[in-house]
Specification:
The chain is an alpha/beta fold and 255 residues long. Helix content is 35%, strand content 16%. The strands form two sheets. A five-stranded mixed sheet has the order 1-7-6-4-5, sandwiched between helices. A two-stranded antiparallel sheet has the order 2-3. The N and C termini lie close together (9 Å).
């Protein structure tokens, strides 16, 4: 048994996709080598007209960001989702569902087995951008937009597909969303609200308006470099990524 008052939490599984790195191990190698995964917006993302070095008019004054490849690729039938329904789902929802499943596999478990051993499993997701519905509305040309960007659905979709019975919520506290989700999950585990938790975050740049909005606020780096806390810092570089962690109280994980 764990000592009284022991509230340590263990990470029992991890998965993610990052710019320039298809999984966490590749990300560590990239960082270890001092590499950068920043680069131009992929040409297939958007038509021309979104970039202007001077900014203004909803256009971005930078072409640089951190981007994931193949964000439109998804196997809906694996999760019991029809292709038509999958097309309407925000790619952030699809990617988080896949990544959370990989984290379960990394933990050497299945949803049913995890829940049978741990009790209700919670889902906590950090998310802050909803550009997919902008894209759908633009393509619909005045007709019904066959796409949604609902934050709650990112967490609830995983809970539904995996039949996870613990708390299920999405968190938007801007750039700290994933960290806040992690904090809420750890507190829930310590209170006994759930016996295990899937925690993570997802961010995709699926519409040029996202960079345009940041440019209008003069938040992006014109040079395309991040120099956090540096005297020559001139803004940040927007980037994509998705990650999921499997958490359990340490004592339960050791058992």
């Amino acid at each position: 048994p764990a000592p009284a008052g022991d509230d340590a939490v263990a990470i029992i599984g991890m998965a993610g996709r990052f710019p320039g790195a298809a999984d966490p191990a590749a990300l560590w190698r990239l960082l270890e080598a001092g590499g950068s995964a920043l680069g131009p917006v992929p040409a297939e993302r958007w038509p021309d007209g979104w970039f202007d070095p001077a900014g203004g008019g909803g256009r971005s004054y930078t072409r640089i960001g951190g981007f994931l490849p193949e964000i439109d690729c998804f196997d809906p039938l694996y999760f019991g989702i029809s292709p038509a329904d999958a097309e309407a789902l925000d790619p952030q929802e699809r990617l988080f569902l896949e990544t959370a499943w990989h984290a379960l596999e990394d933990a050497g478990s299945t949803p049913a087995r995890l829940q049978a051993r741990s009790g209700p499993v919670g889902v906590y997701v950090g998310v802050m951008n909803a550009g997919y519905q902008w894209l759908a509305a633009q393509q619909a040309a005045g007709g019904p937009a066959p796409a949604t960007s609902s934050y709650w659905s990112i967490a609830n979709r995983l809970s539904y597909v995996a039949n996870l019975l613990g708390p299920s919520l999405a968190v938007d506290t801007a750039c700290s969303s994933s960290l806040t989700a992690l904090h809420l999950a750890v507190e829930a585990l310590r209170r006994g609200d759930c016996g295990a938790a899937v925690v993570g975050g997802v961010n995709l740049i699926v519409h040029p308006r996202q960079l345009g909005n940041l440019s209008e606020a003069r938040m992006l780096s014109p040079s395309g470099d991040c120099r956090a806390f540096g005297a020559d810092a001139d803004g940040f570089v927007d980037g994509e990524g998705v990650v999921a962690l499997m958490l359990k109280p340490l004592a339960a994980a050791l058992r």
